[in-house]
């Protein structure tokens, strides 16, 4: 029963014949819709004024929720252990990633320090470990090298050959960080977290795989012991490695290979012995300690020419708000770099946070994550940090080591702060081949070649997108590769939309349900030879409107015993319709081909609302709109058999009286908030 504006409209089904084998169950004989009292606008405003503002504060700062209920005995030991473990892992990685980004080592430590403090306040994930990561470092170096020509001359950012160029590079890195922060804050404020789904899994997988190869190959120069110019394409990089092979230094090579072997052994130790599950995360700090000790004690820098990190500025990060403006003549390239880094780092952070939340039974709000990442990068840009995001490896360690709350992030940041204040002179002895080994072993897990075989079995279009993105990033440039993958994905999406599947429905034996005849192997159950039930399995829009109309017109001559005279359109799957699709549906319903009668069954609320707003609903006859496919089929069969008094699809005959007219049924189109189906 529908109550609308004081009127009551019965919404029922086509009555079953007494001798029918498929009798409609009594409990489904009617749909009851009850009115819900919704406060008017004035009452809603009064109601809103009394809502406590503290809830808004708690939603904006998630740390308030866990700090109010913090259990010191249960949570503090776990948070301390987790924070220290991740911090120990983050120190050498931060120095390594800074070198990859082309900025001084201290910038990497700043990026692992300040943004983490800000994220603890506003981030919604207790397991996401923020800081510098390999892919962002790669994108930053690639973008800024193009924006600042000649900057690749500085092989070691800590001891630059051209300090002025290095200073411009450092300033640009901070400017990219503030641009990324602004992007996140705008998206988070507008609640646009759903944009995280714009890049499909094949594109992300291909990008990560190609990025891992580019990163590893770019670090080989430190293992081989000689420098090569910065290039975008993998083929040029390999050529330069081979062309400069005469500069090979065997001592650097031996040390680098030794560090890689040691890192892999420690990383895989938990696989051999479950008791060593916490040891796997200690590989980077172990290599850092051993390599620093050997280089310092053996005087390898002076005696053997082993290249080390060099000077690292001690102390807490400087205040760099004055670096934000002006952007300079290279601002277009900075915007492009910030856009790429923003998209990639956001996808990385959200995917990590959601994956770990699912494992640990938590909830992650994408919009809140945007705000958290935005504030984190804003704080980082104010204190000499380059763009930060969640780290795959460190986040996994933070989860498996038992972090209970965001306090683990504070402990992690505190350890980085101690290193900045007291231990930077120690890390200047760390050899570059050890940094390269840490980076190479860290990105191995990003390789995702098995996905190609999976996509080849599941979707050849997605496989083509993966291959195009992979080879585009690898052989042309990262931004071009991502653009190729995104463009192909949109093209294939349009193709899928332009060629929808049309399912011919038949009645399931013993029921009033209609299903795909081909899928369920149904042979003419429940419909006459002149009645066809068709479902458009997808949206009806400009891309497929003409094809859909042609398909419907082509049904006219498809009957087995003459012409098809009745077509029932199942509207349940029409989840979207644009103006072009509406015009086609209007033409089919109101001006069908001669001799063909078209009716609509099971329309959704959105479809009915669109028909009303488009002026189509009021022109439909009393026998063209039905609640169920079964009602429409029975009506068409009765009309075909010449039965008089066909019943209105939006009425229910009871005790011999006819139901509501179609004009009354149009009152069903109420706002969703004012009705409730029970």
Automatic annotation (TrEMBL):
Keywords: Membrane, Transmembrane, Transmembrane helix. The keyword Transmembrane helix applies. PROSITE patterns: STAS. One of its GO terms (cellular component) is membrane. Residues 530-636 form the STAS domain. The keyword Transmembrane applies. One of its GO terms (biological process) is transmembrane transport. It comes from the Eukaryota. InterPro entries: SLC26A/SulP_dom (IPR011547), SLC26A/SulP_fam (IPR001902), STAS_dom (IPR002645), STAS_dom_sf (IPR036513). The chain crosses the membrane at residues 97-122, 172-194, 206-228, 248-266, 278-297, 334-357, 369-388, 408-427, 434-454, 466-495. It is a multi-pass membrane protein. This is STAS domain-containing protein.
